[in-house]
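quick one: fe (iii) ion bound model?
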Amino acid sequence: MSDSFVLKGTVCYSRSFTEIAVHPAAYVVCEEGVCRGVFDALPAVYEALSLTDFGERFILPGLVDLHIHAPQYPFRGTGMDLELIDWLETRAFPEEAKYSDPDYAETAYRQFVDHLTRSATTRACIFATRHRESTELLMDLLEESGLVTCVGKVNMDRNAPEPLREASAALSARETRLWLEETAGRYQRTKPILTPRFIPSCTDALLEELQTIRQDWNLPVQSHLSENPGEIRWVQDLCPEADFYGDAYDRRGLFGRDRRGQSFPTVMAHCVWSPPEEVARMKENGVFVAHCPASNTNLASGIAPVRRYLEAGLKVGLGSDVAGGHTESLFRAMTDAVQVSKLYWRLVDPEAKPITFPEAFYLATRGGGAFFGNVGSFEPGYEFDAIVLDDSLLPHPQPMTALQRLERAAYLSLDLLGLHAKYAAGRRIF
Ligand code: GUN
Ligand code: FE
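yep, here:
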């Protein structure tokens, strides 16, 4: 299938952090997987490309989920009356233990990939489980889907029940190296990402092994950070030498910069309670925040001060964090980000202005997209990810602007009712 084509419709993308550009009846051009820009009249040089006219439907950049747990998808929307550690022990760990069985993993991961494929997400950073075989199966399915993803075999060698805990740091490292060797060169769109679950799950010896593996394979890193007050106290007990939670990763060269001073992409989920020193280190090391408002609400973790992080110059994107979050809908994540920022402003910090809808749209597209490179916009040179949305299911007696229609489609999670079409890295997914 050709990855050069033209789409026509109501094209919207973030022109800046605060403004969504709207181009009705416009053309967006993809040449060899790369966006050539948005045009109100199609330039003659592109007239030979095949054109798909989507009428008044929206054409939007694909959305980026910076944090989602594939094996937790089966129990999403249940157990939502617990806090993080109890929820992990009674919900997440027992479910994840099932992925030692490849048959279970295949059934569950097929359902997950199927739903993610039909969602508005074109790119995602995904946690699997500690199991090598089922992680590879997940990667095979994702590659087939055409989505662009980073997938991590999880590392955890302490504080988990027997079937889920890896027996030693050495064994966890060996399995990780095997996973990397077995998948090397196997995929175009599916990349490995180093995934120490969080500090309470990883001994010092394991973190040390992982930093060597990271350097050897030049891997990006994903993990959890400063999510819940009890978790943070636990990390202080486990790592008294660390100045703050993020420092426990940084000391092991797993926080955006290795011991040689070289940078690598790192994304930390949550950062609800990051102290100023942690924010400063994230800024210095270029660490991304995956803001997961639904999860932070469901698990009573708190409200991440995203406005403060943006003012501090941090890189921020959105995460669904299924199944701490109950839905893979990134439309929902956008509107949750707006809503919780208003509660933060009203209840916590009157100086922290609420996030606007255009700002949330930016976070879900360009904000998270930056983790993958030039992703999340229709400006020339961006990788071509797009979703086509039909909002005719939401008729209105009054005139509405395209921006109003878009905001309403997000608030009503129209992405869950089905998109019209989807493209990732220049390929039509459906
Ligand atoms: N911290 C460690 N593991 C997890 C997880 O699976 N979900 C969330 N939300 N936080 C975690
Ligand atoms: Fe998570």
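Residues 67, 69, 224, 269, 321, 324 surround fe (iii) ion (ligand 2) (CB under 6 Å).
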